[in-house]
Amino acid sequence: MKFVVPFSIIFLFVVACAKTNGTFVDKRDGKEYQWIKIGDDIWMAENLAFLPSVDSAREASLEQKKYYVFGYAGDSADSAKTFQTYLWNDSLVVPYEKYGVMYNWAALVDDDTADGGSLRGVCPCGWHVPTDEEWMALEIALGMNPAEVEVIGQRNSGFLGYQLKANYGWDNNGNGIDSVSFKALPAGEVFGGVGFLHEGERSTFWTATPGLFGTTVWTRSVYCCEFGIVRVERDKMDGFSLRCVKD
């Protein structure tokens, strides 16, 4: 006796089994990362933390690779990974574990020319630095009006900042709802050799897309006290966080 499984049941089973999150291991250092699916793309659900060397936040360069760990001023990558400091809320943490690494543009590119394709840069094998357009796709998938994705500055459509921010760790009652488990945390920034700024208040992410000027690149930022997400050009000498996208 034949038993025929209705197509609708098969379809529901396939949909139910389609994974929207998981983990992978960066073979370079053995570090495990979480990932999530947003729209058609698979994103890292935490900041990249690959750290071949480390620099002081007062060291800036357009040409030389610079790697930064919040609060750390030494020159030992091993020490930077276990270094402890107090955050804005007086909690003692290991910034490397909480926030990952911030990179300047030279470190981000990591001698990769892209050659018209995706930019792997400092990302693990099989992953790449997201373009401005891939960030736009994420924004549309989470409810931003497509007519607003190319707007420069703060864009409140879809409340993207509120959706992407973690529901803990932000100053001034600025936590988000973390609607898709992106878990954006306020790692702050490294500003042009001045030092670490905005920890507790801001998280800024690189894209792979050059700006309109020779030394700028498009970025995304979420702030503690804003519901939207900021799209602006930032200088290649600055240090920001990175979320890679799967090839």
Automatic annotation (TrEMBL):
Domain Fibrobacter succinogenes major paralogous stretches: 36-246
Matches recorded under PROSITE patterns: PROKAR_LIPOPROTEIN
Signal peptide: 1-18
Sorted UniProt keywords: Signal
Pfam name, any one: Fib_succ_major
InterPro entries: Fib_succ_major (IPR011871)
Domain of life (superkingdom): Bacteria
NCBIfam families: Fib_succ_major
Name of the protein in question: Major paralogous domain-containing protein
